[in-house]
Amino acid sequence: MYGTIWALLPPIIAIALALITKEVYSSLFLGIVVGGLLVANFSPIGTLDTIINDGLISGVADAWNVGIFLFLILLGIIVALLNSAGGSAAFGRWAQTHVKSRVGAMLATILLGVLIFVDDYFNCLTVGGVMRPVTDGHHISRAKLAYIIDATAAPICMIAPISSWAAAVSGIVDEGVMSGTELFVRAIPWNFYSLLTIVFLLGLTLMKFDYGPMRGHEQNALELGDLFSGGSAASDAEEVATNPRSRVIDLLLPVVVLIVCCVLGMLYVGGFFEGVPFAEAFAATDASVGLPWGSMIALLSAAGC
Q: Would you say 115 and 255 are in contact if contact means Cβ atoms under 8 Å apart?
């Protein structure tokens, strides 16, 4: 099946099932199973061996993958810690007193999404929890909030050199004329999806324009106060922790420390502190080592705050 059109079958099945069932994990797993069947020529034993040994075990044993897993786990811990400490709620309270319009609330959501560029999941978890009270107060539908967060998180992460996305992309590039990190940076001006998505989002916000189903969601939120357009609000039961002593700095300081330490960690791994020039150190770094360095220091800083 190698090099034939049948090689497209596993991703097509995974994507189609994800769209039909709205359930990503099982769809991806079935795509993996189909891929294993093709590799093993439909041998049940060979398929199982391919999935377990060539896929799962080799993937977990890879040092790069372990480093990225560790980075994402640390990010998740930081998000939970910031929410539990009340830093996210404090920022939300501050934004509620300073944001006076619907456009301002949407722009504030975009701005916060731009600032938290290290990881798209970190972005979604943080921005969503922080800005919900602000957008709810200005009768912005949850569908519109979700769109703003989604259209900011991944596109920003995809053009940020210090991000989990950059680390993942750089890791699959074979070292040749240039490193994966250098190639990622040079490709940023050509990442039309990310750049145009951000421009499109800003245009919709500033022109106060909506179309398609989003227009209906926004009309219901404005005219009826229905943020869910008739949907259930049960999924909103988990709210951001409140702490009257929390401050905005409790959110901003760990995020700034995270970004700075990730940069320093990548430079350290690249040899910058041993005399290697900045550009060369950044190009030659190993993000799977540098990013966990930065996230671990940021976690200790957040715990100390």
A: yes
